[in-house]
Amino acid sequence: MKQNLLLKRLSASDLTIFEHQFRNTQGSKQKAINLDKAVFLDELYPNLRNRLATGNESLPVQLHIYGPGRAGLHSQLRKILLQAKNIRLNGEFIRNPIEEEGRYDSLEKDDLVLMELVGNDAPSIAKMFFISKKSEEDEGLFRAFMSAFGKEFSGRKALIVLREAELPAIIEPLTLPDDHPVLDFIDREALEDAVQGGIEGVRKLQHRRRTRGISHDELQRAKRNAERNGRLGEELLNAWLEDQVGAGHFGDYLWVADNDAVAPYDFKILDKDGSVLRVIDAKSTSGDFKNRIHISYAELFEMVRGQIPYDLYRLYNIGDILGSFRVAENVGPHLKSALELLESLPTGIRSDGISIDPSILPFDIERVIDLSEPEDS
């Protein structure tokens, strides 16, 4: 999955996407954030040029908004479209969350937003961290980004593309609180792996956090995020399966895990006579498809020894209403040797599970689940 990192210096008109700034700003009120056409189309998504050329089509995007400061996740659905010859992130106002009155009110001209656009042919998720120079918690971060990239901004250029390796070099030397959400931009996938017992995630964090370590609160937050991703993935897949039943692809299905959280699979696919055709396990991540998949011993045993074909659905880059997935059917034969190896461990020793590289399984093509409401014609 393609992931693009960008840094944008906010203009006064960009800020009018926020309700407070819209109502308290004189001049241009575009209610959108400009995404430089030369960057967005020429450099990142040239295949979208014809699709957006008429201005009659838009791209639904799930926004994961963080900041300013230590403000956590705030999800919104917006759209990217061609408007007034500019590519813009548009839609309704972004309002302060009810429980965070005034969250975005301090943002002003020349503040920054760090963005990650996720998607192959088109971005389906935009992760945005707003950095306010007025925020005590963002002050060092703002200076670090401006020191590294300030000279690249000009009156005609407010959006620049970053290399992934540049972020840790800027963020890691700062003495940020452990729960500062900008850390998710560099440690999110390692933390997700680590809280599920992944040795690769642990080693990566130990290397990156040699002096800072991982706090208990940060680890708990990562666990909650992993649990949330698991539930979101199941909900998205549930909606997709419901559509498949409606289209007549199979008789019915059961969301097993909704009633039994320790079941060795999440869904049963049923024939029209009620017999079980296949079982499905949903493995979800907010990150990339290539992230390692964690499989419990109970799941592995069912995959290999069970009598019903066991399919693995990998959901990735998931949000509240958007996500991508690929399917590996009947994975048991591919993982038989792994189960046999675990069964051969000395008496008294038992592994609780394994983590695998998704490339070793026969995953098919990418599909997209989009639960956004269709636009009015």
Question: Which quaternary structure do these chains form?
Answer: single chain
Derived from helix and strand composition plus strand pairing, the structural class reads alpha+beta
Calculate the terminal CA-CA distance, rounded to whole Å: 31 Å
Number of domains: 2
Return residue spans where pLDDT drops below 50 for at least 5 consecutive residues. none
Indicate the mean pLDDT: 88
In brief:
With 377 residues, the chain is an alpha+beta fold. The protein contains 10 helices and 16 strands.
Task: Write up this protein.
The chain is an alpha+beta fold and 377 residues long. The chain folds into two domains: 3-163, no CATH class; 230-370, PvuII Endonuclease, Chain A (3-Layer(aba) Sandwich), CATH 3.40.210. It is built from ten helices and 16 strands. It has helices spanning 19-23, 37-44, 49-52, 139-149, 166-171, 184-195, 199-208, 216-246, 297-305, 332-343, and strands at residues 3-9, 33-34, 58-66, 74-83, 86-90, 112-118, 125-131, 159-162, 252-255, 267-270, 276-284, 293-296, 310-316, 322-328, 353-356, 367-370. Helix 6 runs antiparallel to helix 7, helix 6 crosses helix 8 and helix 9 (297-305) crosses helix 10 (332-343). The two termini are 31 Å apart. The mean pLDDT is 88.
List the helices and strands and how they pair.
Blueprint: E1 3-9, H1 19-23, E2 33-34, H2 37-44, H3 49-52, E3 58-66, E4 74-83, E5 86-90, E6 112-118, E7 125-131, H4 139-149, E8 159-162, H5 166-171, H6 184-195, H7 199-208, H8 216-246, E9 252-255, E10 267-270, E11 276-284, E12 293-296, H9 297-305, E13 310-316, E14 322-328, H10 332-343, E15 353-356, E16 367-370
